[in-house]
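Students often ask why we bother encoding 3D structure as a string. The short answer is that it lets us treat folding as translation between two languages. Here is a chain of 312 residues written in the first language.
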Amino acid sequence: MELTNLKKKTDKAIADPVARNEARRYSLPTRLAFLPDKTIGELWYFRLLTWIYYYIFICFHDFEIIGMDKIDPKQSCLFISRHSTHNAEITGIIVCSYYETGRVIRSLIHRQLIPFFPVLRLLGCVPGQRDTAISLLNSGFWVAVIPGGGEEAMVGHENAYEVRWPEKRKGFVHVATEAQAPIVPTFLANQEEMRWNPILFFWNLLGLGRLYSSILKLNIPIFTPILNTIGEIVWFTMTWIQIPIPAKLTLYIGDPIPYDISKDSIEDIVERSRNSLQALINRHQPQGKCYSNAIKQRIASLKKYWISKISK
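And here it is in the second language, the structure alphabet:
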């Protein structure tokens, strides 16, 4: 009875009839993602993370968004991006983009991760499943996905700004085309330099990341899937060891990727999406991974800020 009342209460809070009808297809935890942006933004957990992330991103990293004018604020869209090696930017972007745009980005999270961190539901996050993502897009929400997943995050610091999607990762295109939503590439400049992890640093310095990737490429039956799962668990555990670096962070929004579902194959759209994202990264991170450059940009933004204050 209590669960039924909670579902009714949640349904009542979803004012939009289209979103309400889509939400009713799912369990109570998933229905939370269909709540209005403002309702999610006022939840206690979202407000708590505002104090932790918003002010750190704005004050410490001088976070800004460039290119949001390319997006129709009233239209749904599917944002795609590259995976970092540390995960530290995901929550910050969700929180900060809400206060910059008034929209809460619904993030598609690894299905095995959500059960361990159910509180992510209060940020509008949902397990990465096609039907849920399509329903959210059909309801007019902004949805974000990192097609490369954990595999992309573990390719090593030397490949930190290369788009490396496993061949099987095509689901995001199926989602976008079925919902007829635009695919929009995004890139957070200096996302790798914003955190320093001593364990991952020495892991890459010793070339163990390259060795790990080489073993996975052998595609040994039974052994490879087990090794990949163990690797993801170890990597995710190690990402919690982070030292913040005052790197300047800028979220760049690229041009929507054109596609015609009557003419283009899924593979063509995937490749076009990959190339568009890589081009966006190359344009705004031509130097690759470089801590000194990221810090210099932050110092320059500080100088600009104080000069504008003094001149007033």
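Translate back mentally: The mean pLDDT is 89. Keep this in mind for the problem set.
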